[in-house]
Amino acid sequence: MLIIAQGEEINSYPELADQMFRLRARAFSDRRGWRVKVEEGRERDYFDDLGPLYFCLTENDHLLASLRLLPSTGPHMLSDVFPEVMGDTGIVRHPLIWESSRFCVDTEAARTFSADGINVVTRSILTGLFVTAREVGLVNIISVYDVFVERILRRAGCAFDRLGPVVSYDDLNTVGGLFEVSDTVIHQLKSVGSHCAARSLAS
């Protein structure tokens, strides 16, 4: 089940919200060693106070993966935290381009892979993201990620271009990408593996 909630609506699912912030702490601080703020086992940041659109993929009330979307017209990670990866492109500001961030998967629970080697949970939440983006009229999604994740995203069926140079943050080679939102991409994401039903609280 893919649950989509806008801002404080995530609090309608208190156990799910708690799982999401704890998963983020494990994924980004414990596993990857990022310099993120963790309090009482939960990772939150300034951008969580801006009413992002949360995507949470669950199975039997257990969170398998999550991410968030923020409009590029306001503060977002590429503009406020990682502007160097934009290079000569400059900061993206467009009402139909939103930023995806804090993408993480519970790798302990999600151990099923499709024929191309992509985790089924990864493919499912990406499909939900791009289907929703297409339905609400977005033309692109931007995101910042490391080059290892870039290879996974491309193999899964995402179509994107780098926005600028590779920049090292904490010894991690990092890039920014401009992702196509289209029926073609959605078809590619769905072509291997399965996709999930969606329940939305967003207006």
How would you sum up this structure, described in words?
This protein is α+β, with helices and mostly antiparallel strands and 203 residues long. It has one domain (2-200): Aminopeptidase. The chain has five helices and eleven strands, in the order E-H-E-E-E-E-H-E-H-E-H-E-E-E-H-E. It has helices spanning 14-31, 77-80, 120-135, 147-156, 183-190; strands at residues 2-6, 38-39, 42-43, 53-59, 62-71, 97-105, 140-146, 160-162, 167-169, 172-180, 198-200. Strands 1, 4, 5, 6, 7, 8, 9, 10 and 11 form a nine-stranded mixed β-sheet that branches. Helix 3 (120-135) runs antiparallel to helix 5. The longest helix is centred in the N-terminal third of the chain and has 18 residues, at 14-31. The chain starts with a strand and ends with a strand. Residues 193-203 have low confidence and may be disordered.
Coarse shape: globular
User: Structural class of the helix and strand makeup?
Assistant: alpha+beta
* CATH hierarchy: architecture: 3-Layer(aba) Sandwich
Kindly report how far apart the N and C termini lie.
Answer: 19 Å
Question: What percent of residues adopt helix (DSSP H or I)?
Answer: 25-40%
Q: CATH superfamily membership, which one?
A: Gcn5-related N-acetyltransferase (GNAT)
- Tell me about the largest β-sheet: 9 strands, mixed
